[in-house]
Every structure is written in structure tokens, then in C-alpha cells.
Amino acid sequence: MDKNNEPAITPLRFIPFRRSDIIRMCLAENLLDEPGNENFQRARQHIERVFGTEFHAIRQQLKDAYAPLDPDADTRLVAGVDRPPTVPLAETIEAVLERANYERVTEQTLQEAFAAASMFHIKLSVDLSEFDEVLLYTRGANLREERVRTWFGLRQKTIAFCNYDRVVLFLKFRDKVSGITAGAAPRAGSTMLKLFQNVPDADLEMLFPNTRVGMRLTDKLLIGVPALISGGIVFTTKLGATLVLIGSLIGFWLGTRNEPVTLDRGAVLALLAGFGAIGGYLWKQYSNFRNRKLRFSQALTENLYFKLLDNNSGVLLRIVDDAEDSECKESLLAYFFLLSMDQPVTAETLDSAIESWFARRWQCQLDFEIDDALGKLLQLELAHCENGLWRALDLPANN
User: Fold this and answer.
1) What value does the mean pLDDT take over residues 170-194?
2) Which of 108, 121, 214, 238 has its CA 20 to 30 A from that of 322?
3) Distance between the two ends of the chain, CA-based, in angstroms?
4) 238: burial class by Cβ within 10 Å (0-12, 13-18, 19+)?
5) Model confidence over 52-105: pLDDT tens digits?
6) CA 215: distance to chain centroid?
7) Could you count the other beta carbons within 10 Å of the beta carbon of residue 156?
8) Which residues contact 103 (CB under 8 A, 6 or more apart)?
9) CA gap 204, 136 in Å, rounded
């Protein structure tokens, strides 16, 4: 494998540990005395209470905004009753995904993924013009390797690729989407949300509902070359008499042959046998093509079955919960390490201490968002900054 061709993986903003585990991981360091531990526990309850209240409101706002667009809704829309103004759905979802440490996939990255060869040896195509709006977000990018077959399966090579732990897809449909079967097509103007896991970057296009399965050049050769060879055999061994008879008939009709051709029983049987051989040959080749395409479609369906985590309103609840967890974890970590410092420190020093702790103790490379975490502590009145130096504030016992 060529190391120079490995995709670049940036450190995670996402903290890949549960909130309760983060608390236990911090306390296991024994960096705080008894008053410090009590203060940390009071701060934890305050942080969780504030963010719990905020995200409860956001969750309800998103549910109200998504209800008229949900293709899976089992509740009725009430007509003739004034509805309160709702939050802009796409913008609010983007803000929540940002707080949950998801990264937006740019148009350039998406087009590069479309152009790359699929990990599942399937040629896929997607027409993005069939959607009014498309948002694609990923989280937890990591480098993986896999052995793939090349040269018609005669050789193997190891390739490195970027794999996403989580992918969120937001689609707003136009009035008609031609790439989706009638029974599965959503109603006009509806909005679809999908959450997937373990998706290679080269296979992002398989997540779209209007994905079309096609043939790679290798697959066309595997079908075309045997078809040409078998076709030559059929024409030379089974169609000789038929071709001679047809040539004689054409020559007589065009006037290049004076002797008439007698269509007796033997001649008619020869013609029917020839046409039957041609029909059987063409049907066999069509069946080979159709069966191979069906195998590709089955492979796509099986892969999506194990990668799909949630749909529509369920995705909203998941990402809001992820965002609440991320905000709490970042605030808790920043506050704990500020408490453990003997003196006020700069944001850069605190950032380095947290990232080094994850790398040294938990073998996890992070890009900790220190400015965002300290900003939250400032709003929560759990930290104070003076002359660029930060210190933790004690939370009153009655808070």
C-alpha cells in the first residue's frame, strides 16, 4: 500500500466517551481534594440542569417544525387552527449538528466521493438536482484498511480509506423524484432525515434514496467478452444453414440470384431453428446482465440494512441528545481541569493539558474546542477570565 495515498484524517472534535464515563475518568485522576470534588459535583448538576432545560426546548421546537414535513407521521394536521411560528428547520438542524460535533460535507468533498470507486465494487450514481435541499454531516472520521480484489479477482491489494462513524443525511424533496419507485416515493415537499453508521467516504452516494446501480467497465467486460465468444460459436455452428437460406432469399428478391428458393418444410424448420437459436442466445445474455445487476442491488440493500441507525423524527431526537451530551462533556472537562490547576492559566495551556490527557491516558487524539468550552463556563458563571488568565469559580452550595 502506498502511504502517500492515504487520506488525511484530522483530529476529532467529538469526544468519543459517554458523559458518565467522562465524569468517572476525571475523578479517577484524584486531582481534587474533598472540597474540590464537592464543588465539581455541584457544577456537574448545574451544567446538566441548564443544558437539559435548553435542549428540551430545542427538541420540542424541532418536533413542531418537522411535523408537517415528516413522511412517517401518524398524527393528523389540524386545519383552521392558528399554529405558532416554528423555527427554521434546516438552520436549526445545522446548529444542533454543529453543537454535536458533526462536520458538514462540502460540495467538493461530495463530488470527490461520487467520483471515487465504491468499496463494495458497485457503480453508483446520484442526481442531486432531484432535491430542493441537501445537507450531509459526518462525525468520527478514522483511517481504515481493507483488502480488495483487482485484475478480475486474480490479485489483492490493501487500500486505505476514510470511514465515518456517523453520517446524517437531510433531504428536502422536489415535487417529483424520478429515481425512487412509486411505492417508496415520499409525498411532494416532504423532508427526509437518515442516520447511518460506518460509512466509507467513497460510498456516500449509496445513502441517497435515488441512487442508481450501474455497471463498471470490469463488469461490462466480464459479460461482454464471453457473450461475443459464445455468439461467434452460435453463429458458426447453429446458424450456418439458416444464414445460407436467408442469403439466398435476399439474393433472389434483389435480383442477384436467378434460381428461386423453395421454402419447403425443411427450409422452414431451418429458419425457425435459426431464429430460436438467436432468441435463446439474446435471452441468455439479457438474463446474465439482469442477474448481475440484481446482485449489485442486493449487495447495496444488504450494506444499507446494517448501516441504517434511524429515520426522520428519530434522527432529530438522537442528534439533539448528542448535542446536549457534547455541550455537557466539554463544559465538565474544562471546569474539572481548571479546578485542578494550582493557579490561573491561559486557554492554550488548558487546551494542551486536556488534549495531552486524552492522548496519554486514553489513546485518543482530540481537537478540544477550548474557546467554546470556556465560553460556556463563562455563561454558566463557572469561570472567570482576567488578563487572558482563566480560573474556576466555586458554585454556591444552594445553587
Assistant:
1) 69
2) 108
3) 58
4) middle
5) 999 999 999 999 999 888 888 888 777 766 666 778 899 999 999 999 999 998
6) 22
7) 10
8) 13, 137, 138, 139, 141
9) 9
As given in the structure block, the three cell numbers for residue 47 are 451544567
Angle at 390 (CA atoms; ends 389, 392), nearest 5 degrees:
150
**What 3-state class would DSSP assign to 193?**
strand
| Spatial CA neighbour of 26 closest among 39, 12, 9, 14 | 39
SS3 50: helix
Integer CA distances (angstroms), 379 to 92, 275, 331, 375, in order: 21, 83, 11, 6
Residue 300: helix, strand or coil by DSSP? helix
**pLDDT tens digits for range 254-271:** 656 556 655 556 655 666
Q: Which residue has the cell 458497485?
A: 122
CA distance 38 to 278: 86
DSSP 8-state class, residue 187: P
Percent of residues in the chain assigned helix, strand, coil, to nearest 5: 55, 20, 30
Residue 5 reports pLDDT greater than 90: no
pLDDT of residue 160: 74
| pLDDT value at residue 298 | 67
Residue given cell 481534594 in the structure block: 33
The separation between CA 162 and the C-alpha centre of its own chain, rounded to angstroms, equals 12
C-alpha grid cell for residue 391? 480560573
> pTM score, two decimals?
0.75
How far apart are the C-alpha atoms of 210 and 178, rounded to whole Å?
8
Q: How far apart are CA 268 and CA 173, in angstroms?
A: 57
Question: Residues 369-378: what's their mean pLDDT?
Answer: 96
DSSP-derived secondary structure for 252-273: HHHTS--SPPP--HHHHHHHHH
